[in-house]
Amino acid sequence: VYMDGAPVETQVIAVQRSCLIDGVWLDPQVAPEFTGTNGNYALAYDSAGALQGVVNRSNTVYTVSTVEALGNSYYVPTEQFAIDAAGGYHVIWLGIGGINFTLQYRYSQDGGVTWTPEESLTDNPEIRQEIKPQLVADPQGNVHLLYIASESGNRVEYRKGTPEGGWGERVVIAQTGSESLP
Question: What are the φ/ψ torsions at residue 34 (nearest 5 degrees)?
């Protein structure tokens, strides 16, 4: 388990890691791979059991395993990371475009060795803002994205990304009266 916070006995705020071994949880310890972060990270284990993911350090999104900078990010926790059935890595984060927040995306089909160029999934960031993304991959290799969009009110929207066709059109799931978390 990875978590933000400080164990009572140390009061050192950091990303903490605790493991369950033979039915017993170990005491939390600082996770060294997250030193210098602002607590924003998204993780998954690859098919070999290695920890993969992204972390925000000083408003830049980096890969956990190779410490490669993927793009500029806003401070709030928005990084999302998913590994699809074919082993492809998908990363979404909140960037700043125009005057609003934008959803940024990159993909790696070779375990994070190379990445596609950064792609903004937000149309017209001068009037549209997209925040609070949630990303998952399915067994067919597709990725599913939920987020809050504001442009004449708030709403929960959905987009599907496929290996063959890229990102599909937006679908409005619900109008909301406030910024809810999808």
Answer: -115, 15
| CA dist., res. 131 & res. 101, Å (int) | 7
The predicted pLDDT at position 73 comes to: 83
Q: Read off the pTM.
A: 0.85
Whether the CA torsion 69, 88, 118, 159 is positive or negative: it is: negative
Q: Which pair of tokens denotes residue 89?
A: 């890595």
Residues 6+ apart with CB under 8 A from 122: 97, 100, 101, 102, 103, 128, 129, 130
d(CA 142, CA 120): 18
Look at strands 24-25 and 20-21 and give their pairing: antiparallel
Comparing 126 with 120, the larger pLDDT belongs to 120
Distances in whole angstroms, Cα of residue 134 to Cα of each of 10, 17, 18, 104, 143: 32, 23, 24, 13, 10
